[in-house]
Specification:
This is Late embryogenesis abundant protein LEA-2 subgroup domain-containing protein. By secondary structure, this protein is α+β, with helices and mostly antiparallel strands. Helices cover about 25% and strands about 40% of the residues. Strands 3, 4, 5, 6, 8, 9, 10 and 12 form an eight-stranded antiparallel β-sheet that branches.
Amino acid sequence: MTDRVHPSAKSNGTATNPTATAAKPPQFPPIKNQMYNPNRIPYRPTPTAYHRHNRRRCSCRRCFCLSCFWSLLIICTLLLLAAIAGAAFYFLFRPKPPTFSVSSLKITQFKLITSSDDATRLSTKLNLTLSAKNTNKKLIYNYDDISMTLQSNNVVIANGSFHGFSNGPNNVTIIHSTLSMASEVLDADSVTSLKSDLKRKRGLPLKIYLDTTVVAKMDKLKSKKVGIRVTCEGIHGLIPKAKAPAVASITNAKCKADLRMKIFKWYF
């Protein structure tokens, strides 16, 4: 018998199966990332409409700020010019406000009458003399009609008026007026207040109010009408006896003139 040579079962590291070698797919190197920074958020273009809206809003805001700035600047400039003109006028002409004083006050009638229906009525009549003085050298005061009110502890005693007049430079104008009230019904508090004051030795504490408007004029310059209220206090008066009038005490009488600025329906 002949001997057969058998190949070794162990492989020496070389593939001997051609079918298995052909079925294995080829391997390629991994694809590298082409981005420079892998963690960066990708860029997304902004719509054109958003840019237009943003520009329009910025433009409107800029115009509003500019208009506010120029308006404020113009107002400040006008106020500054007005202040300079007022200061120049004051230092050149030295204007002084008008002064008022009470010359005399006579009470010719004062009656408190209670009727059968328990209503108390007041009837009064008084003669008032005032003096208005203008101490300016070039300024003229033109007054409109003056309304007068006489009060005692906020209780109206009498009313009156005086026609308008012109008070020239360094001039004194004497005002004569009659104040009266005819059968005015008073409430209980007013009656109690008047009767209590009549028992005092000095009599009723009286206060006079004058309300008018005035225009200051100098050469061709003329101001607008300005409201003025004159308050005279420190006056005391007794009721008359028989037919002789009672002369009120005006020793401590003082008058003060205040400007009244009207804004809409309110006075200041």
